[in-house]
Amino acid sequence: MLPQLTENNVPIYTLEQTSRHGSKEFEIVRAAGLTHYQKELFFVPHRKRFYLLVFLRSGKSRHWVDMVPYIVKPDTLYFSSPYQVILKEEISSGIPFEATSICFTEEFLDIEDDGLLSKLPIIQNQYNGHELNLSPADVAFVDDISLKLLAEFHNKQGWQKNMLLAYLRVLLIYLSRLYNEQFTAPDKSPERELFNRFKALVSNHFTEHHDVAAYADMLNLSAGHFSELIKKQSGRTPIEHIHDHLLLEAKRMLFHTEASVKEIAFQLGFEEASYFNRFFKRLTSGTPLSYRSTIREMYY
Known about the structure:
Keywords: DNA-binding, Transcription, Transcription regulation. GO terms for molecular function: DNA-binding transcription factor activity; sequence-specific DNA binding. By secondary structure, this protein is α+β, with helices and mostly antiparallel strands. It contains 14 helices and 10 strands. The longest helix is centred in the middle third of the chain and has 23 residues.
């Protein structure tokens, strides 16, 4: 199956819109031999306004995250963050399918007073990972915690949210250890924390602010000192990071939607389509329309 196109925008779904149980903040579903729930929503490019963990025990499929295809493998944990563009494909027939999906919102994580969960590597995902390979011991641990979460989710007794959050906390800490083992262990210095805050701000404000000074102001730093700190941490300037995010979003929309170049330019905060065209060509050596044509030829 090849990616289907949406009209001018990639739809964004809340957890409540996609939930089997009408859940707003947390849901866990264990599927065995089931077809996709609400396939009409997920078999086209879409975004989720929540975190998703998928623990696959058996089965075969493929899905896309930000235009990158992934072959789904057994005994692997897949994870995605809010607002990434995702596309699912049909489950391969003839192969037993068994998986557990755990969905939770940023608001659910914020119930924790100490703020630890939102800072965990698996949540911050600074290396843009999407899958964790699980050893037999990892599979046993994740399966055990998943079963506890599933039982508690259907329990409906007192302090249920606290219990769910406690089990989720254990799971996310365990997965963060695996994340650090399978990706480069992150720097925990104040400078690195500043860099992570900057990246988060860009993710939230890239359509409003294309200039370095705006982000320096948000972080209470002079533009010069801010630029120096970011360059030391990443080897790249703040404006390069801002442009990277704008370019990624532009490519998402060119690939997944039928929006015109002018419409994309305005959605990304460019005053004129000509400015966007020059920006895109400077970073890619090609026009937005040539990129759309080339990338679709590769995958269609």
